[in-house]
Automatic annotation (TrEMBL):
<feature type="transmembrane region" description="Helical">
    <location>
        <begin position="469"/>
        <end position="487"/>
    </location>
</feature>
<feature type="region of interest" description="Disordered">
    <location>
        <begin position="278"/>
        <end position="299"/>
    </location>
</feature>
<keyword id="KW-1133">Transmembrane helix</keyword>
<feature type="domain" description="L-type lectin-like">
    <location>
        <begin position="22"/>
        <end position="245"/>
    </location>
</feature>
<keyword id="KW-0430">Lectin</keyword>
<dbReference type="GO" id="GO:0030134">
    <property type="term" value="C:COPII-coated ER to Golgi transport vesicle"/>
</dbReference>
<dbReference type="InterPro" id="IPR051136">
    <property type="entry name" value="Intracellular_Lectin-GPT"/>
</dbReference>
<protein>
    <submittedName>
        <fullName>Protein ERGIC-53</fullName>
    </submittedName>
</protein>
<keyword id="KW-1015">Disulfide bond</keyword>
<feature type="signal peptide">
    <location>
        <begin position="1"/>
        <end position="17"/>
    </location>
</feature>
<dbReference type="GO" id="GO:0033116">
    <property type="term" value="C:endoplasmic reticulum-Golgi intermediate compartment membrane"/>
</dbReference>
<dbReference type="Pfam" id="PF03388">
    <property type="entry name" value="Lectin_leg-like"/>
</dbReference>
<dbReference type="InterPro" id="IPR013320">
    <property type="entry name" value="ConA-like_dom_sf"/>
</dbReference>
<dbReference type="GO" id="GO:0006888">
    <property type="term" value="P:endoplasmic reticulum to Golgi vesicle-mediated transport"/>
</dbReference>
<keyword id="KW-0732">Signal</keyword>
<dbReference type="GO" id="GO:0000139">
    <property type="term" value="C:Golgi membrane"/>
</dbReference>
<dbReference type="InterPro" id="IPR005052">
    <property type="entry name" value="Lectin_leg"/>
</dbReference>
Length: 499
């Protein structure tokens, strides 16, 4: 039992020791995004026929009848063994598709021809994804590999069954996810793994073809081609990823550049950079409008305001709104103070038996000889309400002052002095409001103390204020105060959105 276990471990060790080294070859690959350049070309590749390159994929042929297209690498390979992963889609409206899709590794670059969009009598490998059943055997869609030494013509009538190295029947049309094919040629062994596109698991491959003793050209061109006939499908290549394979111990080492060459390249780069900057400056001076337009294209963010600019704009708008509210508050407080002064003058005239100056109101006639106790208590209650309202106004103004100070502090921390003048003016206005409220508070406290101390005043019937006029005046004053408090509450709710 121990002997069997050691033998298995030895086989696993040998297999892992023989795994090749993979190196990604970007000159023989393409993938999105930005797959194609602005002129429609693909770097290191060239396409022919009806092939169209976009930012995300290369459409080898569209779903139109009798179309052919192909795309080939510009240069031959420089490595002996390789692995290619092709990610593609084959979609069509019909139940049957045509004609098919092909992967190529040939000694010479292919041209347009009858074999899935490429020429016949090629030298190298062709892997065909045949979606049309020409021999009516019901074995399509079909994947097959075929080697040609330049003397064979592909047999379309039998779908090349007698010419294939190996193959498998797999459906690759109209799949929910992209279909993948991994084609590996290593030490004269050809392996094709297939992903059916029914899941988004990138590693869900299954073996389709394995053929040994396959001798392909040592160096060649990679290519993809497709064709449509009476039926048509969209044949789209999304990715073509190429890896060179090296046996263990033979992988290429990175070439170190000497200090002298580094210095030379750095100097050339600086000279080129300076020359480019000078040309840009000359172009901006000669064509200012065109230069501005190009700058907007390369820097689209400059056309929009930044988050800091937006925040500064919101702070400025909030301070402007607060300033307007404070101005309105100042006017309302002036009105309240004026009304309070008139009320105090009228009360003092009632106590002294005179008529307030400038009022133009004839002295009311009172039936009784003096005010009752309940009337004095009602008067004192009204005065307490006025004092409480003044305190509420003061607390509201203090709250606004604190919030404005917070905004100004944040703005000063960010180094944005744009609202310094406005903050100073708002602060001065706050001081004026506070002083006015203190004066009102002192006056109300004096009136309340005068009314509470001593016996009830005795007034003359000729100059006394009647109970009816007194309550009418108090009602009007209470309505004004309630309206003002409601107005301030609405303004406060509107100002909260700036915090």
């Amino acid at each position: 039992m121990l002997y069997i276990f050691l033998l298995i471990c030895l086989q696993i060790f040998v297999v892992f020791c023989e795994l090749p080294h993979h190196k990604f070859e970007y000159k023989y690959s393409f993938k999105g995004p930005y797959l194609a350049q602005k002129d429609g070309t693909v770097p290191f590749w060239e396409h022919f026929g009806n092939a169209i390159a976009s930012e995300e994929m290369v459409r080898i042929t569209p779903s139109l009848r009798s179309k052919k297209g192909s795309i080939w690498t510009k240069n031959k390979t420089t490595f002996d063994w390789w692995q290619v992963e092709v990610v593609f889609r084959v979609n069509g409206r019909g139940r049957l598709g045509a004609d098919g899709f092909a992967f190529w590794f040939t000694e010479n670059k292919g041209v347009e021809g009858p074999v899935f969009g490429s020429n016949d009598h090629w030298i190298g490998l062709g892997v065909f994804f045949d979606s049309f059943d020409n021999d009516n055997r019901g074995n399509n869609p079909y994947i097959m590999a075929m080697y040609n030494d330049g003397t064979k013509a592909f047999d379309h009538q039998s779908d090349g069954v007698a010419q294939q190295l190996a193959g498998c029947q797999r459906d690759f049309r109209n799949k929910p996810f992209p279909v993948r094919a991994k084609i590996e040629y290593y030490k004269n062994v050809l392996t094709i793994l297939f992903h059916n596109g029914n899941s988004n698991n990138d590693e869900d491959f299954e073996l389709c073809v394995r053929a040994e003793n396959i001798y392909l050209p040592q160096h060649g061109y990679f290519g993809l081609s497709a064709a449509t006939g009476g039926l048509a499908d969209d044949h789209d290549a999304l990715k073509f990823l190429t890896y060179s394979l090296y046996p263990p111990g033979t992988q290429p080492t990175s070439q170190n550049i000497g200090d002298a060459e580094k210095e030379k390249f750095s100097k050339e780069y600086e000279e080129y950079k300076d020359k480019l900057e000078k040309q840009k400056e000359e172009f901006r001076k000669e064509h200012p409008d065109e230069a501005k337009r190009k700058d907007m294209e390369f820097n689209p963010d400059e056309a929009y305001e930044t988050s800091q600019q937006r925040e500064l704009q919101q702070i400025f708008q909030g301070q402007s709104s607060i300033f307007e509210i404070l101005r309105g508050l100042h006017r309302k407080i002036d009105e309240v103070i004026g009304r309070q002064e008139r009320a105090l003058s009228m009360l003092s005239a009632v106590q002294t038996g005179g008529v307030p100056q400038g009022q133009g109101i004839p002295p009311p006639q009172v039936a009784g000889g003096s005010l009752g106790r309940h009337e004095i208590e009602a008067l004192l209650g009204g005065q307490r309400e006025i004092v409480q309202s003044a305190r509420d106004i003061k607390s509201f103004v203090t709250d606004i002052h604190q919030r404005t100070g917070t905004i100004i502090a944040k703005q000063s921390e960010q180094g944005k002095p744009a609202g310094a003048g406005l903050a100073f003016e708002a602060n001065a206005l706050f001081q004026d409001v506070k002083e006015s409220l203190n004066i009102v508070k002192r006056d109300l406290a004096a009136v309340a103390a005068k009314n509470q101390g001593g016996p009830c005043p005795v007034v003359q019937p000729v100059s006394c204020l009647t109970t009816t006029y007194f309550f009418i005046f108090m009602s009007i004053q209470i309505v004004v105060i309630i309206g003002y408090i409601t107005y301030q509450s609405n303004k406060e709710s509107q100002a909260k959105k700036f915090y």
